C-alpha cells in the first residue's frame, strides 16, 4: 500500500504560513532550492517545475496531491485552476461546489475515506499531502510520513502545522538533512 506523505515547510517556531496564509517569507537559497528540485520536484507546482527546468522529468515520488481549499486558493487567485498538472489533484473543500478544472477533483465528503481509497490504489508512487492545518488534523491518522522542511526564520504568528484535538501520535525520525543556510529537512515515519 502506498503512503500519504505530508511534505511541508515550517518556520523555526512551527508555522506553515503567516496569519494571512503568507509563505513568501521562507528564504530559498540556491543550494536548498537545487536539493528540492532534485529530490522533491514532484511536489512543486507546475509553474515552479518549469522555472526549475524539471517539468519534463518523470515523477519519482508522487502521482497524486491532496490539499485543502486554502492551499488551493492562491493558484485560483492568479487564474491557475490546475496548479499541479503533473499530478492527479484532489482538493478537500466544503465551499467549492464544483471543480473549476476537469483535472481537479473536489472532495466534499469525508477526506479520510478519500485518502484511504487513494492509498489503496496500486501504484509505486505515494500521495503528496500539501496542507493545510485543519485538513492535516483530520488526516493525521492516515499520515504515514512527514517531511518537515524547517526554514531558519521565526514567523511569530500564523498557521500551525496541525489544528486538531489533543491526540498524540508517535513518529520516528528517520533522516536529517542540513544545509549551510540553516535549513533542516526532517524525515519522520509513523510508529505503528
From TrEMBL:
In alphabetical order, the GO MF annotations are: 5-amino-6-(5-phosphoribosylamino)uracil reductase activity
Highest taxon listed in the record's lineage: Bacteria
Q: Name one GO biological process term.
A: riboflavin biosynthetic process
Domain Bacterial bifunctional deaminase-reductase C-terminal stretches = 4-184
Gene3D superfamilies in the cross-refs: Dihydrofolate Reductase, subunit A
Q: What is this protein called?
A: Deaminase
Native organism: Jiangella anatolica
Which lineage do the record's taxonomy fields give for this organism? Bacteria, Bacillati, Actinomycetota, Actinomycetes, Jiangellales
Amino acid at each position: 500500500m502506498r503512503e500519504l506523505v505530508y511534505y511541508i515547510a515550517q518556520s523555526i517556531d512551527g508555522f506553515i504560513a503567516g496569519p494571512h496564509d503568507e509563505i513568501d517569507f521562507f528564504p530559498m537559497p540556491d543550494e536548498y532550492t537545487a536539493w528540492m528540485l532534485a529530490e522533491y520536484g514532484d511536489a512543486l507546482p507546475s509553474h515552479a517545475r518549469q522555472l526549475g527546468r524539471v517539468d519534463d522529468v518523470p515523477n519519482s515520488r508522487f502521482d497524486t496531491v491532496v490539499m485543502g481549499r486554502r492551499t488551493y486558493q492562491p493558484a485560483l487567485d492568479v487564474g491557475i485552476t490546475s496548479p499541479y498538472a503533473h499530478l492527479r489533484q484532489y482538493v478537500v473543500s466544503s465551499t467549492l461546489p464544483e471543480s473549476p478544472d476537469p483535472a481537479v477533483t473536489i472532495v466534499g465528503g469525508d477526506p479520510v475515506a478519500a485518502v484511504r481509497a487513494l492509498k489503496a490504489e496500486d501504484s509505486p508512487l505515494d500521495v503528496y499531502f500539501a496542507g493545510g492545518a485543519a485538513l492535516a488534523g483530520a488526516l493525521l491518522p492516515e499520515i504515514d510520513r512527514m517531511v518537515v522542511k524547517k526554514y531558519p526564520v521565526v514567523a511569530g504568528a500564523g498557521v500551525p502545522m496541525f489544528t486538531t484535538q489533543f491526540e498524540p501520535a508517535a513518529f520516528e525520525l528517520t533522516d536529517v538533512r542540513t544545509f549551510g543556510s540553516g535549513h533542516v529537512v526532517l524525515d519522520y515515519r509513523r510508529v505503528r
